[in-house]
Amino acid sequence: MNKRFLNWLDNRQHLAYTIIIPILFLLLCFAYYPAIQSFRFSFLKYNIKMPGRIGFNGLVNYMAVLRDPQFIKSVIRVSYFMTMATVLVVLISLGIALTLNVKFKGIGILRTIIIIPWAIPPVVNGFLWKWIFNGDFGALNGLLFQLGIIDKYQFWLNNPFVALNLSIFMFVWRGSPFITVLFLGVLQSIPNELYEAARVDGAGPLGQFFFVTVPSLQRVGAIAVILILIASFTVFDDIYALMGFDEATKTPMIYNYEVTFEMGRFGKGSAMAYMIGIVLFILTMLYIRMSFRKEKA
Q1: Listed residue (67, 60, 28) closest to 42, CA to CA
Q2: CB neighbours of 85 closer than 8 A, spacing ≥ 6?
Q3: pTM of this structure
Q4: Structural domain span for residue 31
Q5: Does residue 65 lie in a domain region?
Q6: Which tops the pLDDT comparison, 256 or 198?
Q7: Under a CB-based contact definition with an 8 Å cutoff, are residues 213 and 195 in contact?
Q8: H/E stretch holding 45
Q9: Cys-Cys crosslink for 207: which of 70, 193, 203, 265, Cβ 3.0 to 4.6 Å?
Q10: Judgement on whether residues 34 and 162 belong to the same structural domain of the protein
């Protein structure tokens, strides 16, 4: 029996089916089935706290989401988050990549250290910065107090606007290393002949940057921007660990979680999830398109 099975596996097509079928089964059970169920829930009046009142209500959940002031505020909030995070991550990552592209003593160690923030799990990252920003015993207060910049400890996370910007800073700190690696890979692939030709044409360091470096980074830069937009739009673990359901940092992802699992409103939560999914689908298609163009080039 075993021999017959091994002979059957010798066929590459049979082997492919043997590997793919269990994976497809797992995807159907844990990805596609829940997605289909969630889509069905989005058309139902379904509150898990009132299981006896389930009924079809068409597009009411979708309309309720669009009219929800909390959802609209969360969209405005995440738009600001995405804009600031994208600009800061790109600029900081580019600056670090340009620095790491220069050969000097200890460059290997520095390149290793720079990737550490990205390797920290999101929840750990959130709790780490929650301790740093703590108003009673936080490291930030301690440092600023020792330097004489503040005369008393500040409760940074109690100010809504400050809390939102500190959340952006936390995201930038963890997200910049990955984009730095992308930029550094491109910088190291630029031929020195291009810079020499630019110098011959009379271009200084600034001219070389804008006429050689920037054009070489355009394609990967576009991909990096889309990746940052996706990551900043879907950020959840870091902010939840830092602020929980606080109004100041409530993004659509966090609000969706609150509506679905805290309030038990599965119908409205499912509709919100699919609306969020549409945005992610558009961003993902842009990413795939840019990646395909990169490979084609």
Answers
A1: 60
A2: 168, 171, 172, 175, 228, 232
A3: 0.88
A4: 1-41
A5: yes
A6: 256
A7: no
A8: strand 44-45
A9: 203
A10: no
